Amino acid sequence: MSADPETPRRKRRGVKGVALALLGVAIVVSTFVFVLPRIASYGEVWETIQGLSWQWTLVLVGAAAINVATFAPPWQVTLPGLRFRPALMMSQASTALSIIVPGGVAAGMAGSVGMLRGWGFSGRDIGRSVTLTSLWSQFTNLTYPVVALFLLTAQGGQSPALVTAAFIAVAVLGVVVALLVLVLLSRRLATDLGDALARFATWARGKIRRGPVDWGGANFEQFRAHSGHLLARRWHALTIASFAGSLSVFLVLFVSLRALGVSDAQVTATEAFAAWALVRLIGAIPITPGGIGIVELGLTGFLVGFGGANAAVVAAVLVFRFWTMIPTLLLGLVAAGTWRRHQPAPRR
Question: For the whole model, what pTM was predicted?
Fold first, then answer.
């Protein structure tokens, strides 16, 4: 009996998965056990956090609530008939799954699809919603370094890392937007472009001994047919909802900095925004769940580099991460166990 030709490929994927998991563990351990304590001892950090006033605590709770509430609108825009409460529960559950379940973003995406299917939405509508919300999320991530560079330059500041990130972001954003416009312009362009990209992707995968892609021009044409009319009517609402969702995360960071004593004289709002924009772009690379370790290390390094006091910066970054992760984890786990109770009303 001949051996299964897929067996070596599965083994290679398994080895790569284990290697990535070990890399993620190494990053998390080195960040919290070795790097952050060298920047500021946890004793100093805890003392700084204990000095947090009840007024600032209320402001932090309010900022975190705003952040949680902004999860739902992009899904409502891209999936007509989905109400706020189910959208919020679904988005919280999928985000929580992406943080705690092996597989990260893929696990969270699968959770979203499963819940929406269980609520009666069609696979076509779900696929469109997932694609558009993910695409617009990346648009915002690529826009922020460019805006941050402009603001920082206007104030006479410089950051070589930000210049590099902005240059890459402009290039990638320009290419992606151009491709999206071409796909939406005509049926033939969508099909031809999809076939060309599929051939390129298959060639690239062949260089790393991977099989051909299972998509092509027909998929791009389907995306155009299913998404064109919705984007024509709702692209502005999707853009506003996407920017509001991501900027609410920065709001929590900014409030955390000021609440923990990182004043404008140490780190200006523009510098804080630049640090956040850079780390958000880096954190989009799925190395660790939720960017744990990477976000903390990146934010601390940039903010201290801009002039923030070590202990206050580390305290602010940890408080920021707490208020942007723990509420979502708690709400998400509850939603994952009770999602059938949030069945949307029948759609016409």
Answer: 0.84
